[in-house]
Design brief:
Layout lengths: L1 E5 L1 H8 L7 E5 L3 H6 L3 E4 L2 E5 L6 E4 L1 E5 L7 E5 L5 H6 L9 E2 L5 E2 L4 H7 L1 E2 L11 H13 L5 E2 L1 H12 L8 H12 L4 H10 L2 H5 L1 H4 L16 H14 L4 H9 L18 H4 L1 H10 L4 H18 L6 H10 L6 H16 L10 H14 L4 H5 L4 H24 L1
Parallel strand pairs: 2-5, 10-11
Antiparallel strand pairs: 1-2, 1-8, 3-4, 4-5, 6-7, 8-9
Helix pairs in contact: 5-7, 5-8, 8-11, 11-12, 11-17, 12-15, 12-17, 14-15, 15-17, 16-20, 17-18, 18-20
Bound molecules: cytidine-5'-triphosphate.
Cytidine-5'-triphosphate (CTP) binds next to helix 5.
């Protein structure tokens, strides 16, 4: 049997990037031979094994044929006769379809190395269409390697467009899609992920609520970029530049969905878009079964981001309501994530990327003033239940009034 390194490990070594996961392909072996060498099978009828010591994945060279819709609809053919070239041709991108032996000799029948040098994400063969998840994968690689100048090849974008129109994307499970989306959002240029999905028509299928923002104008005084979709991309870009976590990036992507619902005659104003957007945010959250912390932050940022921008003008009672809505006493981190999402929203505007955002520290100060109210003295007075809650609220309001005064003097 011959063993080769394949996929991301070869690609990333040639790019001079750190290699974390190594995938191997085994040519000329049977499952029985692998078991005899101590490899552990990954699944009952899937020709992938784990190395007894390293735990790395070793897959028998295989061909795949699509036999139905969605990811389940595959039949595999793994046998010692399947060649390395046959295994490589069923893979997604040329840059992912190279193999390397233990002497670092490259097998590159589909010119992945040339495409790496030319900075092109190109599909290997029509077999690309067999797994619709690859539409998201290509967009994710585009987001990851945008900083190196990679672009999607026109013919690959065309194939992605056909796949998006074919209805195949609807067959993807929430789990597989979310895995790609969440990884893509954590790349260095997540806005490129959304842009590529839009360019091939996949955004309209996966997140029509985000797609609908493009072409919707906003008032130029606050938004020199005008277009709501462009603004959303810029907010996401800022979130990545500021190394924000997934929760914040997800909230940034969804914060303005309500603007897509504004009747044209009201443009460029978007009255109550925060509230109108909530049902759309909920729908997107649920479609991809986003983790609870992502769901919650997206809804809260959607509802309250304009409060964040107007923080300095808010009455003490409104500030208190805001802090209560976030349950800032038990969940201080979530409020901090809200603050930075608002800041990204303020900076994700053309020419305003470097603006200062005094609202952030002001809100932090308000949170600590309210959190500074001690419960113990109220308990000592014998208060409990709803009475205790009311008394706490009164004390916090007092603290916020004092905070507002001290901040304005
Ligand atoms: N692959 C594919 N189609 C998929 C998933 C994977 O063709 N839908 C192939 C590609 O050749 C890929 C390899 O399997 O390089 C390994 O896949 P995976 O580990 O998911 O990705 P990597 O390319 O290693 O990329 P990453 O750095 O994102 O893990």
């Amino acid at each position: 049997m011959q063993i080769y390194k394949v996929g991301g490990a070869v690609r990333d070594r040639l790019l001079g990037k750190p290699v974390t996961d190594i995938d191997w392909v085994v040519v000329g072996a049977t499952a029985e031979e692998m078991l005899a060498k101590g490899f552990r099978p990954v699944g009952a009828d899937f020709p992938v094994f784990l190395h007894p010591k390293s735990g790395e994945e070793y897959a028998l060279a295989r061909t795949e044929r699509k036999s139905g819709r969605g990811y389940g609809g595959f039949t595999f053919h793994a046998s010692p006769e399947v060649t390395l070239e046959e295994d490589l041709i069923r893979r997604d991108l040329t840059i992912n379809a190279m193999a390397e032996d233990d002497q670092q000799n490259l097998t590159d029948p589909y010119h992945g190395q040339r495409d790496l040098e030319d900075r092109i994400l190109r599909h290997v063969s029509p077999a690309f269409a067999e797994d619709p998840l690859r539409v998201l994968r290509v967009a994710r690689f585009a987001a990851r390697y945008a900083e190196l100048g990679f672009k999607v090849a026109p013919e690959t974008l065309e194939l992605m467009r056909q796949l998006s129109e074919s209805g195949e994307l609807e067959a993807l499970t929430a789990e597989r899609s979310w895995k790609e989306i969440s990884r893509a959002l954590m790349e260095s240029q997540p806005q490129v992920f959304i842009q590529v999905l839009r360019d091939c028509g996949a955004l309209k299928v996966l997140m029509p609520e985000v797609d609908a923002l493009f072409g919707v104008p906003q008032p130029e005084v606050h938004h020199p970029e005008i277009d709501s979709g462009i603004h959303t991309l810029s907010v996401l870009e800022q979130a990545a530049l500021h190394k924000q976590p997934l929760t914040v990036r997800w909230a940034c992507l969804l914060h303005d969905l309500g603007k897509g619902l504004t009747p044209e005659e009201e443009w460029p104003r978007h009255i109550a878009h925060e509230h109108k957007g909530l049902k759309l945010i909920k729908a997107v959250n649920e479609r991809f079964k986003a983790p609870k912390d992502c769901q919650e932050l997206a809804l809260l940022v959607g509802q309250y981001h304009t409060h964040g921008h107007r923080a300095l003008e808010l009455k003490a009672s409104t500030l208190l309501e805001l802090l209560q809505s976030f349950d800032v006493y038990r969940r201080p981190q979530r409020f901090e994530e809200f603050i930075v999402a608002c800041e990204m929203d303020a900076r994700g505007r053309k020419g305003l990327e470097q603006r200062s955002y005094p609202q952030a520290d002001y809100l932090r100060g308000a949170a600590s003033a309210a959190r500074g109210v001690a419960v113990q003295p109220l308990l000592e007075k014998g208060l409990k239940g709803p009475e205790l809650g009311e008394a706490l609220k009164r004390e916090r309001l007092k603290a916020l009034k004092a905070y507002k005064e001290s901040a304005s003097s």
